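Appendix B, record 7
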Amino acid sequence: MHDFLKEFCRKSNIRLIYTNNKYKVCSVTVYNNVPKLRVHKIFKNCPEHVANALISYFIKFENLDNARNTIEEYLFNNYPVEEFYIESPNEDMKFVFINSIKPSLPSNKDDTEPKELDILSISKSDMRGNISKVNPQDTMLVEEGDLLEVNITVDMPN
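Structure tokens (predicted):
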């Protein structure tokens, strides 16, 4: 299947992060003047009209009601959880988005896009050799001045 959302974000300098959050399924922030769109992995390989709805809702601020309805309909039909939260678009970021990206519609033309890998495991070790496993869904907290080695095992696609 084709990942229209990933393609659009890559071409438009939007950082796309797929999450496995159980409740908050869509949100957007700006980090170093780069828009960062966080969506549940249920949107990976979603139909083109759903990807366009996500972009319209969070990035372009166009047709917000229609876009949100499309997103919710997709979730109701594909997401096995009854309660979920879609963050509202932040109007304060509209200026940043408009001035940092030049949106274009996704297409199937480029098959050279990077492949997304599934994380199998994460472990971290401190300078004393203490090793601990990290849940890939959790945030890794690091104290200021700590030096860690992080080992990530991924599943390579064929």
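Remarks on this record: The first helix runs from residue 4 to 11. Residues 101-109 have pLDDT under 50 and may be disordered.
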